[in-house]
Amino acid sequence: MDRKHSLNAFLAQYFPTFICAFFLACFAVSASISLASSTYFRGDPERAKYSFLIALVLSLLLALSHFFMIRGRSWGVRAIVVFYLVCLFIALPTYGYRPHPVAYVTGLLFLLLGLLLLNSKRHREMRQKLLELRNERIATRSATRQRKKMKGR
């Protein structure tokens, strides 16, 4: 296996893009939860507990969608985009409640930078390569099954 096709070369080229997109999604979800709990649920005494549970569930779903994207599933990326859009639609209306300006701007900044990074050329190349790897795995698996089937006859 030459350097061009090695795992190290793949990670060197695409890992920074992947990890930035992942962390921007995590920050966007947490900023949206923070904005929603400090504005919409300002008077609820148990908002911290609910915010923690929602963050836990959403971060698990976000990690799973990134895992499926790594495995070459295109719907994993769509789930990530849905996360960003839901966070955007939660964070935008909080402006009417006068949230802290820095929290509001950084929340929107994380969202928009994450969407921009998902649409970048490098991220699209990475997803294409991951899809090609998935197709290779499927072809190898079916060839192995065919050999076992022929061997069993």
Q: What is the mean pLDDT?
A: 90
> Count of DSSP E strands?
0
Tally of individual helices: 5
SSE pattern, N- to C-terminal: HHHHH
| Fraction of residues in H or I helices | over 70%
Envelope shape: elongated
Q: C-alpha Rg, in Å?
A: 20 Å
Q: How would a crystallographer describe the biggest sheet?
A: none
Outline the low-pLDDT stretches: none
β content, as a range? under 5%
Number of domains: 1
Report the span from N to C terminus.
Answer: 34 Å
What would you call the structural class?
Answer: mainly alpha
Features:
single chain, 153 residues, mainly alpha, 5 helices, 0% strand
Q: TL;DR?
A:
This protein has 153 residues and is mainly α.
Give a written overview of the molecule.
The protein has helices at 7-39, 47-70, 74-91, 101-118, 121-152. The chain is mostly helical and 153 residues long. It has one domain (15-152). The protein is elongated and about 70 Å long. The mean pLDDT is 90.
List the helices and strands and how they pair.
Blueprint: H1 7-39, H2 47-70, H3 74-91, H4 101-118, H5 121-152
Helix pairs in contact: 1-2, 1-3, 1-4, 2-3, 3-4
